[in-house]
């Protein structure tokens, strides 16, 4: 294997030699392992207790231009490379690191062999040329590319497994080179970029360097070179980078479409129409009732630990406070698959509508993006708005006759359709209604129904969405009047449960106020969510703008900016608090990025507890 096809999945037995620096080599071997209790049979230097026993330096012979170079030290790293679910095909990436006593000259031919043949057979040959512009995994650029007038940074650093972080103390400069000619177009100094916030020893990411080339604005295709380390993958500096990113993001959402096909020429990852069969509304007499009741009982266990959850726990279909009104089957085609599974969660459906519509209404130029390569492109309507409509048309189908919205569209007999393509997916059903899912649906339909851009393109759909949102609000008010604010909420799954339904209710009130200007909704929002800056409304006390609360604050803060309300209709004190919370979240994201050696926005609060979950995805 080599670096000419970086997206190719390596096969078992593939191997590679890289020159990481003039005195550091990396040997890669792709291996596998039979099912337990079998052990790894190749390059197995770690015992069952996790103790590492490395091969002796004498196990390696290194020749540089035919001359032997002694190995001073050996390191090892092992990671799972590939492990699909449907059929076993485990591929393990193993790396051995060899520190040399003498440097490898630029352009030299390098070969590594195993005199004893204990580590690899004679048919496995590790050889490479130490080209000055060889690809280096030590150099990390933004593969999306860079806009000419925006910041442009790259990081230099690498983890060597048992050897720890790569020592880069001897490297102080970098160059930008033309990707085709190799000619130098810019040069600069590397600076230290230490990570902060981790509390364990050794502190990670303390040898990372940063290359800042923000002042270079000439469009073109380039590589970033650190003399002695090699070069990055090629990347572009160009105004088209933003459009390419938007096109890729849009393509990802198109791939998740449900109730239709994915087809040429829009994608090469094609499938036929999926999930177009009628969706069941289950009863206690349904053949699937046992499965549904198990799901409801198991997923609602979290309610047992919540003293505010005073409603009866939803242990089965009949335990719902809000019985199904419609019976039999409904059309619930459309929308987007949630993830690798093909379920459609009302909470997440509503969030997608919010983000897409907010982008169209609030960000300059987004409403004019009609060339992103989906079937609707070129018709004069924003592609993002049409993707939001695809989702909203599905959401509208989930409303029961009493105004409530079903919580999820789900497989009839198992939790995840994880072993079939969408067009071979399972028959589906809906899970019962609750107030959090209904409030999220109310908010999303009110927002898209009141979007000035959407109303201009789809006036009838906008009117219908808003009418459904109002019906959903009436359902919520009846529920609260009947069972109380806390007692009307029943947990179904973790989705929408962090603040029970309080954040979704705040979002629904904000969206309906922005849509109608009726002070009833403004009063509801400010009465029940009086202080958007309250730490108790942040997940874990620090994660601000989380789920429904974040949507509510955005909706209120931008109600006038997006043309839904006049500035005088907004309470100035409340508006200031919403704006402050948005800025607080943004400042935290920037701060987290500054504290991370590689620039990602991993939160400071997570570092001491060594966990992340979905922080990066929110």
Q: What percentage of the residues does DSSP assign to strands (E)?
A: 15-25%
* Structural category: alpha+beta
**What gap, in angstroms, lies between the N and C termini?**
36 Å
Rg estimate, integer Å: 28 Å
Chain-averaged pLDDT: 96
**Number of E-type strands:** 23
- Identify the overall geometry: globular
The parts where pLDDT drops under 50 for at least 5 residues are none
Q: Sheet bearing the most strands, described?
A: 5 strands, antiparallel
Alpha plus pi helix count: 11
Q: Helix proportion of residues, in percent?
A: 25-40%
Short description:
This protein has helices spanning 240-255, 289-299, 346-362, 383-396, 435-450, 452-457, 459-483, 502-516, 519-528, 547-557, 572-595; strands at residues 15-21, 24-31, 61-64, 67-68, 71-82, 91-100, 109-113, 126-129, 139-140, 153-156, 173-178, 184-189, 191-192, 209-212, 220-226, 230-231, 235-237, 279-281, 328-330, 344-345, 406-411, 428-433, 498-501. It is built from eleven helices and 23 strands.
Describe the protein in words.
The structure is a single chain. The protein has helices at 240-255, 289-299, 346-362, 383-396, 435-450, 452-457, 459-483, 502-516, 519-528, 547-557, 572-595, and strands at 15-21, 24-31, 61-64, 67-68, 71-82, 91-100, 109-113, 126-129, 139-140, 153-156, 173-178, 184-189, 191-192, 209-212, 220-226, 230-231, 235-237, 279-281, 328-330, 344-345, 406-411, 428-433, 498-501. The chain is globular and about 85 Å long. Helix 3 (346-362) packs antiparallel against helix 4 and helix 8 (502-516) packs parallel to helix 10 (547-557). The chain is built from 11 helices and 23 strands. Strands 11, 12, 15, 16 and 17 form a 5-stranded antiparallel sheet that branches. It has a 4-stranded antiparallel sheet with strand order 1-2-6-5, with no helix packed on it. It is an alpha+beta fold and 618 residues long. A hairpin with a 3-residue loop joins strand 15 and strand 16 (230-231). 27% of the residues lie in helices and 18% in strands.
